[in-house]
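Hey, can you fold this one?
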Amino acid sequence: MKYRPCTLAYAVKHASASALSLALLTGAVSALSTASALAETAQAAQSINFAIPAGPLDQVLGQFGRQAGVPVSVNASLTAGKRSAGLRGAYSIEQGFARILAGTNLSVLRMDNGSYGLVEGVASDAALQLDATRVNSVGLGRTTEQTGSYTTGAMSVGTKLSASIRETPQSVTVVTRQRMDDQNMQKLEDIALYTPGLTLRKTGGERPEFYSRGAAIKTIMIDGLPVAYDSDTLGTSTLAMYDHVEVVRGASGLMVGAGNPSGTLNLVRKRPTVDPRLSISASAGSWDDYRTELDVGGKLNDSGSLRGRFVGSYQDRNSFIDAYENKRQLLYGITEYDLGADTTLTLGAYYNREDNPGADWNGLPSRVDGSFFPFSRSARTAPDWTYWNKKNRSVFAEVEQRFDNDWKLRLNTTWLRGDLEMLGGSLYTDQNNDYHLNIGRYTYQHTQKSVDAYASGPFSLFGATHELVVGASFRRDDTHDGPGGPGIGSDVVIDPINFDPKAYPKPAIDNNWSRAGREEQSSVYATARFNLRDDLRLILGSRLDWYAYEQATHVDIYSFGDDYKVTREYTPYAGLVYDLDDTYSVYTSWTRIFRPQAAQDASGSLLEPVTGTNYEAGIKAEYFAGALNATLAVFQLDQENLAKSLPSALCGPGVPDCAEASGEVRTRGIELELSGELAPGWQASAGYTYAAAEHTKASNSADKGARFDSDTPYNVLKLSTTYRLPGDLEKWTVGGGFRAQSSAYTSFGVKQGGYSVADLMLGYRLNAAWQLQSNLNNVFDKRYYQNISNSWGANSFGDPRNVMFSVRYTPDL
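Sure. Predicted structure:
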C-alpha cells in the first residue's frame, strides 16, 4: 500500500492565504481528524461476528481485515512460517487481533490513516514513527495471486527454509502469477524464455529443455517435491494450475539430490481459499490460437474447514509451421481439510493431455559445412502425418501437523505418470553427406513416485533462537517403453530444401524395440539457520543419498543396458548472510551436487560420480519492505570427474570401452537482477547474465581452455515491465518485454549471431470484474533460431510476430 501527501495538507503548505483563512482551514482539519478518530475508535470497540478458519497467519489476517472492514498490512518477513488458529465468535477489532496473534510474538499498531500494521514484540508509540512504506507494505507472502506484484515475500527453493529473496544466499528468481498473466505465459517454455539466467532449447517441436549455467535442468520440483524432468513425456502446458514458479540457479543438490549443477524450478500450486473466487478467461490469437480457462474455488462447508479449488483449461491452435497443430487440456482439483486446529490434510490431482499432430521429431537441418539452408519459417522436413502426443496423470497428498512450540511436521507424496505416443521423422547424414529421412514410432510410459517427510521449527542455543529442518525422502522412476521401432523401408534419401511433406506414405512399423528401467533415490537431509547476531545468519545443510539406476534396451534378439549405484553420497551446503543495514545484505554460499555416470575404468569399475561445486557471492537489496528486490552476484561452478575416453588397448579383459575421470569444466559469471515495484503501479523484472564455461582439463590437450557448451550464449539480457497509467487513464496498463543474447555456435560449425526480440502489452480494465488485454510478441518480426544444433536436425525457428487478445472475468463474490 503506497501513500502520497494529503491533498489538503499540500494546499495548506502552498496556498498564499491570510492568517484567518489558514486558521479556519486548520480548524477544519482538526475537526475532521477528531471526528475520524472518534469514528475509528467506535469501530474498533464494536463487536463483530467472525468466522475465520485456521491457516497461515498472513491469510488469516487478510480474511480478518476483510470481515472487519479495515485495511491490514502484512510484512512477509514477520509472518513467514507462522500459522493462526483462526477466529470464531464476536470480538472487537483489538480483541480479534490479540487472539489471532497469540503466541506469535507479534503485535499490531493502528496508523493515523486507520490501517493496521504488524511489528515484532510489544507495540510501542515509537513504532508509529516508522516510515509508512515500511509499515504499510504490500504484505507479500508465499502466495503471489492477487498481489499485483512481480516479486514475493517468502520462498524455500534454495534451502527448504522459508526465507525472502534477500535472505536466500543464492541466485533466485520468482515468476509470479501477475507476471505470468501480464506476459501471457502458458507453458514452461515461456518461463525459460523470460526468466533471467535460463535458456531454452528444443530438440523437436515438443521436447523443450531448460539450461542454466551451461547445463540442462534435469530435476524440477512441484511444491518442493523433486520430480525428474523428462521432456519426452512430461507435459509443459500446465501453468494455469500454478501460483508461481521459483527458480534457483547453480548447484541445488541439497534440494534435489542427484542432478546437474544447473539449478531447478519449483512449481508452486494454486491453493484453495476460504473466500469464494471465480475467474473465467478466453483468448484468441495468431494461427487460430483459441484458449479458455476456468478457475473456481472457496469454502465447501459453513465453517470453512473444508476448502476446494478447480482449474480447467483448453487450447486449440495451429502453428506457423505447416501442418502442425496443438490441442491441450488441463483438469486440476485440490482440497484442503482442517482435521483440527493444528492439522491440515490436502488431497489433489490433475490430468493433462497434449495432442500435437504434425509435431516433428528433431527439427530443421543445416548444411554439412554448418551454414543454414534458406528455409522459410513454415518449412518442415518430416511428413505431415507425424504426431507427438503426451498424457499426464497425477495424484498427490499432504498432511501438515502444527505444534504449540511453532514446530510443524509435513508429509508430502505424489504419483505421476507420463505417457507418450509418437510417430516421427528425423534426418541423418551418411558418409557421402546425403540426407536420409528416418521414420520411427515409439510409446513410452514413465511412472514417478515421490515421498518427502520433514520437521521444521525454532530452537534455542546460546541465548538466541535458530531454525532447523530435518527430513527424509524417497523417489522412484519406472520406465516401460515400447513396443516401437523404425518404419519398414522408410529410410530414403531426400533433398531438405525441396522436401514435400505429402509425398511420403505412412510406413508399417517394425516393433522390434523395447526398454525398461528403474531409478531410485533415498535421502536424509538437515538444514539449520543460525542467527549468530541480529544482522548475521549462518545456514548449514547436509544431505546423504543412496542412488541406484538400471536400464535394459532390447532390439530384435540383442540386449544392452546400464546398471550402477551410488551409496551415501554426501552433499554439503553453507551460506552466510550479513545485513549491512535495513536495505542491503551481502552473502556468500558454497554447495555441491552429484551425477552418477555409467562409464567404467580399465578394470571395469564404475567411475566416481560427476560433481558440481558452486561458489557464489553477492549483494542483495530489499526496497519498500520487500516490494522491490535487487541482486548482484558473481559465481564459479566447477564440474569434476567428467569421463575421458581411453584407448581400447588400455582397457582390461572383458572391458571393451573404458575411461578415466579427469575431465573438468569451469564456469564463471555474473548476474544482475531487479524485480518488483519501482513506483506505484510500475512493476518490472530485469536480469542480465554473463556465464563463460571452458575446459580446464580435456581428453585432448588442445581443447584445454576451449569454450564448453558453446550452444549457450555468454550474454543474456531479459527485461519486462508493466505500468498502470495514473489519473483519468488509470484503467489502462501498458507494458512490454525485451530479450537479447550474444552469439552461439556448435562443435559442428553451426553458428548464429546475437539477436534481440521485443514484445508489447496493453491492458484495459472495464470495471472491477472485466479485464481486456492484448499481447504483441516479436514486434519487429525478428527471424532467428530458438536453438541451433548439428547438420542433421534440431534447428528450431523462434516464433514470428504474433498477437493474442484476452478477456478475463473475475467478479467480486
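Residues 19-45 form the longest helix (27 residues). Let me know if you want another pass with a different chain boundary.
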